[in-house]
Write a structure and sequence with these properties.
Number of domains: 1
Shape: globular
Radius of gyration: 19 Å
CATH topology: TIM Barrel
Strand order of the largest sheet: 8-7-6-3-2-1-10-9
CATH superfamily: Aldolase class I
Helix content: 40-55%
């Protein structure tokens, strides 16, 4: 059995990132409906099968995050999804939180649920082949009450220590949302506060930082802000936050896309690696754990039609290849100039 440190390091191996294909049943059903596909369990399975069986996927993807539903499904030949991914050289992860609910006395903040019964569920996921997991905290910079920050940081730390106890690498995902009218400075301040609180709680809980992967947002302008920061500004602000909050023991940082297009997310990731390289090798690998930025083009191309599967897989492969190149270093550095 691989050690936690080995799994965490392998997830952020050079040139590779993590594919997030872990949407809840409700979210995945809405996305299928948006392209005219029936939101059935079979269609959700077929879509995830299309992603996983994309030729060459393992060249760019180290691990895939699946939902509880998908981890319990089989391919048409009867092979469980977990076994199929492992056979392709792709590590299997699973989303273990159960969504968000309002946090009392926090001025509209949300708290991620799912700690009840998590210890037992992790054992079951481990038996089904999962060797890493994901828990997402959702934080709105316009409603960043201290209770929301600390409640979510505490929940992330409790999740992380339960994962490590079960022999599973936790992906720690505190997401400061990009939707809103806030500017880059507000996102940077909020992300600094959130990551500082998260690592404080991880330390309190005794989490081994060498056996986690951090999945934060990039520091970007809110989607409704009139001044949209370019890749160089995004990279500068993000690296300042990381330097101030993330201990060097963490092996890698796999950024979420958060609603960015593939081109935008990859340009920002390339600029991050380019700027990080100018100061010498950073203490952490900087890579990607994208969802929509990798798969949206494939979903729109597929439309639930088997005849479109190869074209859809080609779209996914192209997006994964671009993200892989952006994770290697100063690729497309001109985009950040």
């Amino acid at each position: 059995m691989l050690e936690l440190h080995e799994v965490a390091t392998a997830l952020v191996a050079p040139g590779k990132g993590i594919l997030a294909a872990d949407e809840s049943i409700a979210t995945m059903s809405k996305r299928l409906e948006s392209v005219g596909v029936s939101p059935s369990a079979d269609m959700r399975r077929d879509y995830r099968q299309l992603l996983l069986t994309t030729p060459g996927l393992g060249n760019w993807i180290s691990g895939v995050i699946l939902s509880d539903e998908t981890l319990g499904q089989n391919l048409p030949d009867g092979t469980p999804f977990g076994e199929a991914a492992t056979a392709l050289g792709i590590m299997v992860g699973v989303k273990v939180d159960t969504g968000v609910s309002p946090l009392p006395f926090s001025d509209g903040g949300l708290i991620t649920e799912g700690l009840d019964g998590l210890r037992g569920r992790l054992g079951d996921y481990r038996e089904r082949g999962a060797i890493f997991a994901k828990w997402r905290a959702v934080l709105n910079p316009a409603m960043l009450h201290w209770r929301t920050v600390h409640a979510n940081a505490h929940a992330l730390a409790r999740y992380a220590v339960l994962c490590q106890t079960a022999g599973i690498v936790p992906i720690v995902e505190p997401e400061v949302l990009m939707y809103g009218s806030h500017g880059l400075a507000a996102c940077q301040a909020a992300t600094t506060d959130v990551l500082g609180a998260v690592f404080g709680e991880l330390d309190t809980m005794g989490v081994d930082l060498r056996g986690i992967v951090l999945k934060p947002n990039m520091v970007v302008s809110g989607t409704g802000h009139e001044d949209q920061a370019g890749p160089a500004e995004v990279a500068r602000g993000t690296l300042q936050v990381l330097a101030a909050t993330v201990p060097p023991a963490v092996p890698g940082i796999a950024f979420l896309s958060g609603g960015q297009s593939n081109e935008q997310a990859c340009a920002n990731l390339a600029a991050l690696n380019a700027q990080a390289a100018t100061g010498g090798a950073p203490p952490w690998r900087l890579t990607f754990s994208f969802g929509r930025a990798l798969v949206s083009d494939a979903l729109r191309t597929w439309h639930g039609m088997p005849a479109n599967a190869r074209d859809a897989q080609n779209k996914l492969a192209a997006n994964c290849r671009r993200a892989s190149e952006a994770s290697k270093g100063p690729v497309n550095a001109a985009a950040g100039a």
